[in-house]
Automatic annotation (TrEMBL):
Signal peptide: none
Organism: Streptomyces roseolilacinus
Entry keywords, A to Z: Cell membrane, Membrane, Transmembrane, Transmembrane helix, Transport
GO molecular-function terms, A-Z: transmembrane transporter activity
Keyword Transmembrane: yes
Pfam family, one: MFS_3
Record's protein name: MFS transporter
Transmembrane segments: 33-56, 63-85, 148-176, 208-234, 240-263, 275-294, 300-321, 342-361, 367-384
PANTHER family associated with the record: INTEGRAL MEMBRANE EFFLUX PROTEIN-RELATED, MAJOR FACILITATOR SUPERFAMILY ASSOCIATED DOMAIN-CONTAINING PROTEIN
Recorded coiled-coil stretches: none
Annotated compartments: Cell membrane
């Protein structure tokens, strides 16, 4: 499973750069059309998360992982084929991106539900850390590889690399032999809406799960403001060249690797709850540093902010995911993870709008300070939910 995730993550890192370049350069799309492409990629995460959570809890999860890998390979494979015959267009690219992201929703929820079924509770943090390190390495290597491939063979052919990576990932998953992943685990036959409701009720009855989900939603709002403001702040207000912006972005990936390696230690040393709360506070400081507000060497401040933000973000992501896995019965993991995912992705568009419009009024660097304040606020639900008292494994009861 780890190997499959690494291969597909590297491919996704390549495509994350290749698809926008394909739209802008090869297809000559306008800025508005490229923006719409980005928006479409987020839509399935909002529309389909709750339904996907029910599917993951009902279906054999090994089959779900394999089918969504092969399905994404087919969708992305149409891009180079159509490009070869000069039939590629922006509407087709919109459809491809939507279908790929729809399957990614299902695959991500299945992956988060599989880990607790193949590892004992005491190894969950280490397992989640291994997956997190994959993502950080893919962010660094995938973007670099994607840029080089686009330069050498063009964006259309580069997309084929991601398609091939999903084929390899699906093949590797055939060797995932855990019996509990091969059988369907249907949680009653009450209909999709009633199963969605049961997941929501389970979350609402658990103060820690409520706190984690609400905190994640507020934190995602802060991250969206940051993402909408950072590049403009660096390029237009701090006059950084594009090469420097790219190098600084790589530091976030390096920080993510460091955070993935430290997360298990932090949870063991301080407890899950306290490590997650400290990670949020550090993330807020890191975002503020990216605004370089204190007159220090701006590139140094931004670089430190990127690295520290990547590190604390990884510690937070791994800690809160592990807490959810430990607090949730295996047959409800898909629905519980889906509730959190829905809140996170519903917050992103609003945060992006606030960051964009706020940058026009207050300036992009000022909006980074706003993002830091919002990130700090996201710790409040954890304090109210007394998440700091969560030290380790909590018994999960089936609803």
């Amino acid at each position: 499973m780890w190997a499959a995730h690494l291969v597909s993550s590297l491919g996704s890192g390549v495509t994350g750069l290749a698809i926008p370049l394909l739209a802008a350069v090869t297809l000559g799309a306008s800025p508005a059309a490229v923006g719409l492409l980005t928006a479409i990629s987020a839509v399935p995460h909002v529309l389909l998360s709750l339904v996907a959570g029910v599917l993951v809890d009902r279906a054999p999860q090994r089959a779900v992982l394999i089918l969504t890998d092969f399905g994404r390979a087919v969708c992305l494979g149409t891009v180079p084929v159509l490009g070869l015959f000069d039939l590629l267009s922006m509407p087709i690219l919109y459809c491809v991106v939507f279908l790929v992201q729809a399957q990614t929703v299902v695959n991500d929820l299945a992956s988060a539900s599989v880990v607790p079924k193949v590892l004992p509770p005491e190894m969950l943090t280490a397992g989640n850390s291994a997956i997190s390190v994959n993502s950080s390495v893919a962010w660094i290597a995938g973007n670099g590889l994607g840029g080089g491939l686009v330069q050498l063979v063009g964006a259309v052919v580069t997309v084929a690399v991601d398609a091939i990576s999903y084929v390899f990932s699906g093949v590797l998953l055939f060797f995932l032999r855990a019996p509990e992943l091969a059988a369907a685990k249907v949680s009653g036959r009450r209909g999709v809406l009633r199963d969605i409701k049961s997941g929501l009720v389970f979350v609402l009855k658990d103060r820690v799960l409520v706190a984690l989900c609400v905190s994640s939603g507020i934190g995602a709002f802060a991250v969206a403001i940051r993402d909408a403001s950072l590049v403009l702040a660096l390029v237009r207000e701090l006059d950084f060249p594009a090469v420097l912006v790219g190098l600084l972005a790589m530091l976030a990936g390096l920080g993510g690797v460091a955070g993935g390696l430290l997360a298990d230690w932090a949870a063991t040393r301080f407890g899950f709850g306290r490590s997650v709360m400290v990670a949020i506070a550090v993330s807020a400081v890191a975002i503020a540093l990216m605004a370089a507000p204190f007159g220090v060497a701006s590139a140094v401040a931004v670089g430190v902010g990127q690295f520290v933000g990547g590190l604390s973000g990884a510690v937070y992501s791994i800690g809160q995911l592990t807490m959810r896995q430990l607090a949730t019965p295996p047959d409800m993991l898909g629905r519980v993870n889906a509730v959190r995912r829905f809140l996170v992705y519903a917050s992103f568009p609003l945060g992006g709008v606030v960051g964009g419009f706020g940058g026009g009024v207050l300036g992009s660097r000022s909006m980074l300070i706003v993002a830091a304040l919002v990130m700090a606020i996201s710790v409040i639900p954890l304090v109210v939910g007394k998440v700091n008292k969560v030290e380790g494994c909590r018994p999960a009861q089936t609803l």
